[in-house]
Amino acid sequence: MTFLTIGHRGVMGVEPENTLRSFAHAEQAGMDAVELDLHLSKDGALAVMHDAAVDRTTDGRGLIAEKTMAELRELDAGQGERVPVFEEVLDAVGSPVQAEIKDVAAARALAEVMLRRDLAGRVEVSSFHDEAVAEIAQLVPGVRTVLIASRWESDVVDRAKEAGAATLALNIRRLTLDVVEQAHAEGLKVIGWVVNTQDHLRLARALGLDGATTDYPEIRRAGRFTA
């Protein structure tokens, strides 16, 4: 069975998260895919950043939704890196991409880019929000989708199926064999996040997960040999 290793916001444990530098490092480390986060800027661009505000990851202040992409580009996102727009990442690295969308509006903007550039085979779309997963699945024929959850109830597998998701991405600290077996029985893949230690990597393999999201490139190397 293939065990996928996904670079979380690139390899954010060693590089500024959600930057071209981080994504390039993830690709060079052999990650099977890179994960990134998308928010809409004031002028409708798909800005690659995790938080709704720029405060934590840049030298700026304020909400992404209240800044144009040009204004976001003026900020230092770490080590001189700039806040990338989604299309820049697609051009800078050749890796498969897992794009997390924060709401339905972002889903619609992402769908436009995916349809224009024929990205259904390269870009997998994830979200914590069932409605955003369902929206992108409706807008982009053949797109692969992922429902993410940190805390969940017993209906999480049913939720994923109803939203049309092919994969569940679940918090490794709360993941149980029962949930994994339920998901697999329904034909769903299960990814654990965030797997940053050898103990969590061993747990991921013991649970029979299909892959892991990690902040560190060395997890990719270790994963090849962890039974």
Task: Give a structural overview.
With 227 residues, the protein is an alpha/beta fold. Helix content is 34%, strand content 20%. The protein has nine helices and nine strands. The protein has helices at residues 20-28, 69-73, 86-92, 104-117, 130-139, 156-163, 177-185, 198-206, 218-223; strands at 4-8, 33-40, 46-48, 97-101, 123-127, 145-149, 167-171, 189-193, 211-214. It has an eight-stranded parallel β-barrel, surrounded by six helices. The longest helix is centred in the middle third of the chain and has 14 residues, at 104-117. It is globular and about 45 Å long.
How do the strands and helices of this protein lay out in sequence?
Layout (H helix, E strand, L loop, with lengths): L3 E5 L11 H9 L4 E8 L5 E3 L20 H5 L12 H7 L4 E5 L2 H14 L5 E5 L2 H10 L5 E5 L6 H8 L3 E5 L5 H9 L3 E5 L4 H9 L4 E4 L3 H6 L4
Parallel strand pairs: 1-2, 1-9, 2-4, 4-5, 5-6, 6-7, 7-8, 8-9
Antiparallel strand pairs: 2-3
Helix pairs in contact: 4-5, 5-6
